[in-house]
Every structure is written in C-alpha cells, then in structure tokens.
Amino acid sequence: MPYYPIFVDLRDQDVLVVGGGEVAERKIKNLLTHGCRIFIASPQLTSYLKELVERGDILLIDSDQVDDVVDTVFMVVAATDDPALNSRIASKAKARRKLVNSVDQPGDCTFIMPSIVRSGGLQIAISTGGKSPALAKKIRGDLEGMFGPEYGSFIELLGLLRRELISRGRPSSENKIIFQRLVNSPLLELIKEGNIEGVRQTLSSLLAGEFPVEAIVNRVFSGI
Predict the structure, then answer these.
(1) DSSP characters for the chain?
(2) Residues 8 and 106 in one domain
(3) For the whole prediction, is pTM greater than 0.85?
(4) Fewer CB atoms near the end CB (10 Å): N or C, the chain?
(5) Higher model confidence: residue 169 or residue 53?
(6) Structural domain for 198, as ranges
(7) How many domains does the structure of the chain reveal?
C-alpha cells in the first residue's frame, strides 16, 4: 500500500531519537531545522551529538527512561545499528499510536522520511516507498539543478502578494485568476536574472497599481 504524502509541523513538538551514531546524527541535524525538542537515548554518541547535548540543544536520557518518554513524545525515530532493537522500539511506539520511523526498516515504520529538495519556501519530497532510497537520492540530485535560489525569492514574493490579495476580501474566483497570472508571468526568470526593476514593472502591470508593489519588492529583495 502506498504511503500518504504529508508535511508535518514539528514546531514545539517533542521527538525521541534512539541511537547515537552517524545515522542518528543525520536525522537530528535535519530535525533541528524544524523547531522540535529532541530527546536522545544512546550509551554512545558521535562528537557532534555530544556537543549538542553539552550545549543543551538536545536532551540525553537514560535507556531505562525510553518507555516513559515514548508515552509523551509526538514522534519516535529508531536509529540504532541493531535492527532487532529498532523493531522493539518501533513496536512500543506504534502501540502508543505515535509516529515512528525505523531507519532502513520500512515495515516497522508508520512514516518514512523522503529525500528533500529545498529552495527557500519550496520543498519537493521524493519517495520510492522505501524500496530504493538510492534512487530517491539520485532524483533529488537531478532536481536540485533545476530549482535554484530564485524559487525561494519567487515563493516569498508570491506569499506576500497572496496575503495582500486575500486581505481585500475579493471572491476566491477573482483571486485565482490573479494568482495564475503571477505564476505564469516572466517574474521567475526576471528574479533569476537579478532584474529587480523588471520585477517591479511586471507586478505593476499585472496588478494594475492596486497593491503596494514597491514595499513588497523591497521586502523580498532588500539584500540584492
């Protein structure tokens, strides 16, 4: 059965990672960028994970605390080098109806972590349903060359314009037409070229002078 694709907000959520090796380190590096609180259980830690514990960025717990912590967290990641141990942790987490990822053991997971392409607010998730992470990684590499930093700026610009449009209380059918015009306009290419004046002129033309174009453009491109 295929996995249901979903993006989860982990801000201020508690996550338990069991394992302290390189795999756990990679998982934690990614998790730290999403604003969650991380508990880690492992008798041994990489030097990087030790630094995180010493700085208080993650909280080290004893192995005998794992069961209690599983009860309280939102998500569990089993990332030890012992498949049997990972399976036991996953079973405990599933019995408590927690989201659980058991590294390289999709049969023990309630979710799998896709390979991600990021450019600012753009995220593209690639999954093979756990059948070939290597292929997902290759596809990610191919896509990274297609979606450069201009997409991040474009998405930020579209987000500000969308909020401005919605605040005016127009019918959604009218807003949809404007959104499509913006997406299909030359704006992305102009941003890629660094032609900010062209961005201003295009927005002024598309929006018929109704919006604070100058303020929005300055907000997005103030560092250029």
Answers:
(1) -PPPP-----TT-EEEEE--SHHHHHHHHHHHTTT-EEEEE-S---HHHHHHHHHTSSEEE-GGGHHHHHHH-SEEEE--S-HHHHHHHHHHHHHTT-EEEETT-GGG-S--PPEEEEETTEEEEE--TTS-HHHHHHHHHHHHTTS-THHHHHHHHHHHHHHHHHHTT--HHHHHHHHHHHHTSTHHHHHHHT-HHHHHHHHHHHHTT-S-HHHHHHHHHTT-
(2) yes
(3) no
(4) N
(5) 53
(6) 150-221
(7) 3
